[in-house]
Design goal:
The chain has about 300 residues and is of the alpha/beta class. It has helices spanning about 5-10, 15-30, 40-50, 85-95, 115-120, 130-145, 175-190, 215-225, 225-235, 245-255, 265-285; strands at about 30-35, 55-60, 100-105, 125, 150, 165-170, 200-205.
């Protein structure tokens, strides 16, 4: 039986329907995608998915908007500094696609919080995590439970969006983060050495650019003090005080959860990563049969 069309919704998504057809449109509006990490890549990807009529989006991020995010992250405005990235982005996406169910989940994905995350039961997952340990845990869980997942590797230290590529995670080239992920998955989770992982990866073949040394670090320390960042991050997860994630948050903020010193970034690269990742999610949705229980590549 054909799904009933909302005339107003069709009006807003007419150009998308012309591209993917009515059956493809119905696939998109009946699927649940979780985006883990709403930063320089995940924020652009989540907006692209909302504009692609995805029916349910869960935005997962514990962090708050920080002044240093403004060069590349959609949630960051001068008016949103200090607010939850996931909640700011969710409010924005509801304005874009009011028919979609948009949820914000303020959570650091880690082995300690994985059970809570997977309770949302997404059909597909977009992995935009920086921390390689947590990233590999997420990728392995998805593989073990046959949940379709797309991963984004390192968008930092890159200047050329035309060098972005998509292939199976087992076959990336040049990208050092992808190499580290692959090695850890094989070592810790018994991923195969000579076979496909069946995980689409968005990566870059551009050699990473070493960050310039800065001589204004003392000034930045005063403006964007670590104490203030910790304060904002702690406030954003206060309601999850029973989730045993404080150690993870402290590691994340101190730099143990990310590469330090940070790479330089640009919106035209992180945004291109996010848009390419969103396209891969849409591709998996469209290639599955209508009402499919699996969206695996």
């Amino acid at each position: 039986m054909a799904q009933k069309l909302d005339p107003q919704k069709v009006c807003f998504f007419e150009r998308l329907i012309r591209l993917v057809g009515l059956e493809g449109f119905h696939k998109l509006e009946n699927v649940h995608v979780a985006i883990v990490g709403i930063g320089g890549v995940g924020s652009w990807a989540s907006e692209a998915l909302a504009r692609s009529a995805v029916g349910k989006l869960t935005l997962v991020d514990f962090d708050t908007v920080n002044p240093s995010n403004i060069n590349r992250q959609l949630p960051c405005l001068h008016s949103t500094i200090g607010q939850s990235k996931a909640e700011v982005m969710a409010a924005r996406l509801r304005q874009i696609n009011p028919w979609a169910q948009i949820e914000a989940l303020k959570l650091v994905y880690s082995p300690a919080t994985a059970e809570k995350f997977w309770q949302i039961e997404p059909d597909l997952v977009l992995d935009c995590i920086d921390n390689i340990t947590y990233k590999c845990h997420l990728l392995n869980y998805a593989r073990e439970h046959k949940i379709a997942i797309v991963t984004s590797t390192g968008a930092g230290g890159k200047m050329d969006p035309t060098r972005i590529r998509v292939c199976d995670l087992s076959n990336t080239k040049v990208d050092p983060m992808a190499l580290r992920i692959r090695k850890k998955l094989r070592r810790d989770y018994a991923f195969p050495s000579n076979k496909s992982f069946h995980i689409p990866a968005v990566y870059s073949e551009e050699d990473p650019i070493k960050p310039f040394e800065t001589d204004w670090s003392s000034l930045l320390d005063k403006i964007c003090s670590e104490e203030e960042v910790v304060k904002n991050a702690s406030a954003s997860i206060a309601e999850h005080e029973d989730d045993d994630i404080y150690e993870d948050v402290e590691n994340f903020i101190s730099g143990q959860g990310r590469h330090a010193p940070p790479c330089g970034t640009s919106s035209f690269v992180t945004g291109a990563f996010g848009l390419a990742a969103a396209q891969q999610i849409v591709k998996l949705i469209l290639q599955a049969s209508l009402g499919a229980e699996s969206f695996l590549p």
